[in-house]
TrEMBL record:
This is Response regulator transcription factor. Pfam families: GerE. PROSITE patterns: HTH_LUXR_2, RESPONSE_REGULATORY. It comes from Streptomyces phyllanthi. Residues 4-120 form the Response regulatory domain. SMART domains: HTH_LUXR (SM00421). The keyword Transcription applies. Keywords: DNA-binding, Transcription, Transcription regulation.
Length: 234
């Protein structure tokens, strides 16, 4: 027997393609819509048996808010999440919001259909390999990469951080000295110390390294508004 469905996805073309494939397999697809177009309201109004909710970012905060609303106002609607290979947080967030299952976007239509039937019958619809991968990651978490930007920032004094910011903004020695109220020779010394600490040979390399590691984004708390240096001693 066919299932009364709604397909919701961030990408309307994907939603429509999946809806067409399910129609050909005998299911009644009430609508295909995108979340930004008020999908939760549409699901609540049409009250399908199963809603296929697609997302490209299952771990993004608030992504499953529409699912929470659907389950609050239409608890009889089974929501099946369609997404990329998730991390444990993605799966946990989907189920915490009230979803009945999680299916990968690249799953064959037969697999999607099996998950739909399970969700409609009240069963949890999650492929064993997804659960296995999630548990494996939880039990053996990958080592987090070092925060190189923060590490480099800690090597510099507040005044050197200001010098680096000015270097990244393209200021020459004269402008650095004028802006900081110091002698050009002192400014030149600060620049050389920054290059040495960062392990680079030129101002251009220093600016590129600071941008690549996010060091400049972290420099704000070290400087007061207006570019003044914090009173922390050098």
């Amino acid at each position: 027997m066919g299932v009364r469905l709604m397909v919701v996805d961030d990408h309307r073309l994907l939603a429509e393609a999946l809806a067409s494939a399910l129609k050909l397999r005998g299911h009644r697809v009430l609508a295909a819509a995108a979340p930004a177009a008020g999908a939760a309201e549409l699901v609540i109004t049409r009250a399908p048996e199963v809603c296929l909710f697609g997302t490209a970012a299952p771990a993004e905060p608030g992504i499953f808010d529409p699912v929470v609303r659907i389950k609050r106002e239409r608890p009889q609607v089974a929501v099946l999440v369609l997404g990329p290979v998730p991390n444990p947080r993605g799966i946990a967030a989907a189920f915490a919001a009230g979803a009945s299952g999680y299916v990968r976007h690249d799953e064959r239509i037969e697999g999607v259909e099996r998950a739909i039937m399970k969700a409609r019958s009240g069963e949890a619809a999650v492929a064993p390999q997804l659960l296995q991968g999630a548990f494996s990651e939880l039990l053996n978490p990958a080592a987090q990469p070092d925060d190189e930007g923060q590490r480099l920032l800690q090597m510099l004094t507040p005044r050197e951080v200001e010098v680096l910011v000015r270097v990244a903004e393209g200021e020459d020695t004269r402008l650095i000295a004028s802006g900081m109220g110091i002698a050009p020779s002192t400014a030149r010394t600060h620049v050389q110390r920054v290059l040495m600490k960062l392990g680079v040979g030129s101002r251009l390399e220093a600016a590129a390294l600071a941008a690549r590691t996010g060091l400049l984004d972290r420099a704000g708390p070290v400087l007061r508004p207006g570019g003044a240096v914090d009173a922390t001693p050098e």
